[in-house]
Prior knowledge:
16 helices
Amino acid sequence: xxxxxxxxxxxxILKSFPTSIKFxxxxxxxxxxxxxxxxxxxxxxVFVVRNVNQxxxxxxxxxxxxxxxxxxxxxxxxxxxxxxxxxxxxYYNTLVKIAEGYTIKYGVVSEVSLIEDLLDWNDxxxxxxxxxxxxxxxxxxxxxxxPTALLQNLHSAVHTALLLxxxxxxxxxxxxxxxxxxxxxxxxxxxxxxxxxxxxxxxPQLTYFKxxxxxxxxxxxxxxxIPKSNxxxxxxxxxxxPAAKIYHLNHLPRIPQVKLVRAWSQGPRSKDTxxxxxxxxxxxECSEILAESLKAIVRRSSITQSLKGIxxxxxxxxxxxxxxxxxxxxxxxxxxxxxxxLEPGQSKAERIVxxxxxxxxxxxxxxxxx
Length: 370
């Protein structure tokens, strides 16, 4: 049976780092079950700090070997400049082995930069990560703007997903749409990531998604009906009238709105945001226009952040990390090919769940025979 790192173990990892962390969460396949993943996965962490420059200065003294050359040699100011001026304003140290016996990847981001991404979707990078369940290790201070920004980010995800979905959809499609917001447009999904990654995230974590969005969806009762049930093949209904779309469009984050206006206002059309959003609500291709706008945000941030990763991780670690990702992708794709065909009346989601159960039973049988 696969074992996943628990909260107490995760908090133990934090003892190796400076204590001035304002918010911290763990995510990914090392802490949440994903379909077909192995228990040896790296643990992904994000540290949110008030003063990035000061934090890197302290961490360089505590953990100098976490940083790749030549940035380690240039010092904390150079590291801070790379973090703040390139990519999605987050600095990752990857393939870090710590005393507790874990291999981790940790990102450092300023509180201001995270709040900006959560509210405006400048990069839809960490905002997209926080659309999905995470394990919070350090709660934000009650005086911080982070709690409000985190909630607003989830509201924005629901507004966006409803604009992208048709009038009728299943609950699993709803959460897959939300989970896919930060993946659609990511160049790594072309090569380097498992093509079924979104499904592999949502299906095993459906309960967590429901818990995360249940309080948010209470504010959308006039616009969408998502039946409450333990099943995942439920049919949901939403209001797709122009009035409902105008409501959702007006509640999108700032950057998607800007991109929508730019896409719509080419030529003699009005460049007024309110006029444009109202017109887009009546356009039959509203969802397609929005999808392309979101892809443009994700594409830019994923490319620039990945290029920054080569510098921050160093060439050797970058090659090792990329190799692990590619091998994992190839392994998962080969396992997907072994999934049996649909039985009459069986949905794709049900088929995948049945396949996972069969694999689990097969592993248990192998253990008994050993």
